[in-house]
Amino acid sequence: MIIRSLLTAFIILNLIGSSILFIPSVASSSAQSIEVGVLFDLSGPNKAIGGAMLSGAEAAMRLLNSILKDKGISLDLVISDTQSNRTRLLIGAMNLVRKKGVDVIIGPSSPYLAKTLMAFSNAHHIPVILTANKYPLMPYPWNKDFKWLFSVSPDIRNMVKSFLMRLRQKGIQRIGLLIQDGAKGTYFNKDEGWIKAYSTEIGIDIECALGFKPTDTDCSYQLAHCREMGAQLVLYRGERSFFNVLASSLKMVQIPVGFLFDIYPERQFPAPVYVQYPVTLKGDKEGGGGAIDSINAIRFKNVMGIHDAAQDRYIAYSAVAWDAVFLLSGAVKKGYFSKRPVPEAIREGLERTRVNGVLGQYNMTPKYHSPLPKGALGIIVIR
Question: β-strand 377-382 against 273-278: which pairing, if any?
């Protein structure tokens, strides 16, 4: 009796601790079932973005299962909470692959976790569609590390080039950089090089480039120096945990601040904020960019009940996850499953998939695994 009780307790704790939820599809039992694991932050400091991504993925999957069932395919969603933590991501990914037997993974919702998931994908030969990733996926097959990786997330090249071009269109030609350094700032350590390279190409002057440590309690000196040097805006590259310090410093030194797509400013700031945002959700055609009136973008807005995307800026992350699921649906419709393992079939299918997403049209090829549509990102200004 004691042994049975201990065994029961162990099983219950194991189920609770795994942070995994299985949501079966409503498709018929005779359908080819594709197990789709998602790794999103559903608790922790980035839970709002993770929740938005999960909403987008679930909505897309409900819609697609009603379409794919006629083709004998169903998508089953298996959810794991990464809790904004690398260790939890690895545990969740291992559970998804070894215990739940997923065929493909979508995630993460935090860009800091991307490299960890990328390494896991390559080690376990599981296709991953990245939804938060700043690292460029260099052309495959020359770089074997990216064989199993695909991305619908804008990388640092897409974000920087698009942001600087939009600033020029708005008449801003002189900016400053505020970039986190120190032991925990490795995620941002090469950003300055990308920004300076594209600023020269686009015609933006970098008036100052100053750093800060996550433990600093003030950055008003850096802001004041950039303003004195003639900067019209300061581009911030640092962790969200520094936002309170940035906000208090902006009260003392007023200057507009900008954020790329991967670092979302959740809180209000006492200065104009320039936020990178998908053009298709802005409600205008500023500077062109992407399929503004694409069927999938309109469908996404209707399904998600969007009336004013600018009032619900987290919806941009729902759109990225939606695009990831639609990209997957394009791959599974290729019908490779009878001749090879499902993960390998999905990987091959993804390499030949073209799909109209919310952000624009994705054209995956065997060589390029992260073809974000040109001009997909614009800027909204929050005052």
Answer: antiparallel
In sign, the C-alpha dihedral spanning 113, 122, 39, 132 is positive
Distance CA 10, CA 368 (A): 45
Closest Cα to residue 64, out of 29, 38, 26, 30?
A: 26
Nearest-angstrom CA–CA distance, 244 and 353 = 43
Angle, vertex CA 235, rays to CA 43 and CA 213, nearest 5: 65
Backbone CA torsion sign across 60, 61, 62, 66: positive
What is this structure's pTM? 0.86
Task: Please write down the HEC assignment for all residues of 264-286.
Answer: CCCCCCCCCEEEEEEHHHCCCCC
Enter the tokens of residue 101.
């037997």
CA pair distance 203, 365, nearest whole angstrom? 32
Domains in the chain, ordered, with CATH?
20-154+295-370 (3.40.50.2300), 157-260 (3.40.50.2300)
Confidence at residue 8, expressed as pLDDT on a 0 to 100 scale:
43
In angstroms, the Cα distances linking 6 to 3, 12, 99, 362 are 5, 10, 21, 51
In the chain, the amino acid numbered 366 is: P
Residues 6+ apart with CB under 8 A from 161: 198, 201, 202
First to last CA, the chain: 65
Token pair in block for residue 364: 């995956």
Q: What are phi and psi of 278, to 5 degrees?
A: -60, 130
Residue among 287, 281, 257 nearest 270 (CA): 257
Q: Tens digits of per-residue pLDDT, 51-70?
A: 999 999 999 999 999 888 88
